[in-house]
Structure formats: structure tokens, C-alpha cells
Amino acid sequence: SAGHLVYLATAWRRGVRGPGLYSQSLQRGLFPPVPRLLTAVGEPVPQSAPAQRFSALGAPGAAGSWVAFVGAGSAGSVGVYACNVAVNSGACRRVVDSSSRLPGGGSFANFEGTPSVAADGTVVFMADASNASRSGVYGADIVSGKVWRVVAMGDAFTYLRARGTGWDGRCLAFYAITGDADAVLAVDGRSGRFRR
């Protein structure tokens, strides 16, 4: 991600052992590369109300200068968060969380797997919704916070799975089951139209 290695590791910090999200520059001349903490269990959850601290962090997805991950808060919230590795402070922010509204109504209930990030600063993620037929794959612009629905269970799917590196900013590849058939499908990540 923008010349950085990003990883989740357990380390001792401030006398406490716990997982943290780290970034290391891969630029020449920086030897040995020094890990930089982006966030960790026990650190404040960005833009949480009420104020919370991370109680768990998921594996990161990264592209360009952005890293995204699923994190859980100490008061029970869960969300997708992103950090900018090109900024010294890590500049982490909330993308969406369990208090966020779904496009078209309802709310997010849970987030699964590793979010997939594109170099343009967009991220796609699996989300459960308060209404099960609205659970599915959603996209968001990390900077503006705009959220959109890509595909959902109500689109005649009995199972959906999208994680890792299936998103390039335009097209999303994902695994789905419809009735008795299963396939890897490609969809325009902005409009939800299927591609051939």
C-alpha cells in the first residue's frame, strides 16, 4: 500500500500485550524499516458515540495510501475503519459502523471479513443489516463517507461472500449462491450492474 507493508501483529505497548495495526515503509534508505503503529486494541475508536476503545481488530485490506479493517468497540459497536499510511499520525477514521444508516433505510448490524480497498480511496465490505434481505456487499468513499449498496441478499442470492482483493475501484468480483447454482460473479461496484 503506497510503498508500505501493513500488518496486524501482537506486541507489548505501554505495559499491555495486544494486537495492533502497523505500517512499515518499503522505501530504500530506510533500513531497518521501523514499524509505525496505526491503531491498536485499547486505542480510541474514531468518531464513536459514546466514546469507546478498540476491543478487537480484523485483518487489514490495503491499496494506495489507505488501509481498511473491521474493528469492534468496547461498548459493543462494530464498524469498518480506515487509516492513511501516507500521514504520520495514521489518520484513522470511521467509514461506517453499527450506528450508520443503510442507503435506502435500515441500519448496519455487523461487518464480516477483510474489507477490500482500491487505490482511489474506496472500500467494499460485507455487512449484515437489521433487515436480512438488505445484508450484502456495500461500498464507501473513505474521505467523503458516501455509502452505496453494491449487491444484497434481496437480489435473489442465498449466499454472498466478497473479501480480500476483489475490488479495483470499478469492478467487484465475489462468490454467490443463487438457488442451486454457485459462481464467482463480477459486478460494477458503483451501479450494481452485472458484467460479462
Overview of this protein structure:
By secondary structure, the chain is an all-beta fold. The chain contains no helices and 15 strands. The strands form four sheets. Strands 4, 5, 6, 7 and 8 form a five-stranded antiparallel beta sheet that branches. A four-stranded antiparallel beta sheet has the order 9-10-11-12, with no helix packed on it. A hairpin with a 5-residue loop joins strand 11 (136-141) and strand 12. The two termini are 29 Å apart. The model has no long low-confidence stretch (mean pLDDT 83).
- Characterize the largest beta sheet: strand count, sense, and whether it forms a barrel: 5 strands, antiparallel
Q: Low-confidence runs (pLDDT<50, min 5 residues)?
A: none
Number of strands: 15
Net shape: globular
What is the CA-based Rg, rounded? 17 Å
The separation of the N and C termini measures: 29 Å
Strand content: over 45%
Q: Mean pLDDT, rounded to whole units? A: 83
Number of helices: 0
Q: Helicity, in percent?
A: under 10%
Helix-strand category: mainly beta
> What is the ordering of alpha helices and beta strands?
EEEEEEEEEEEEEEE
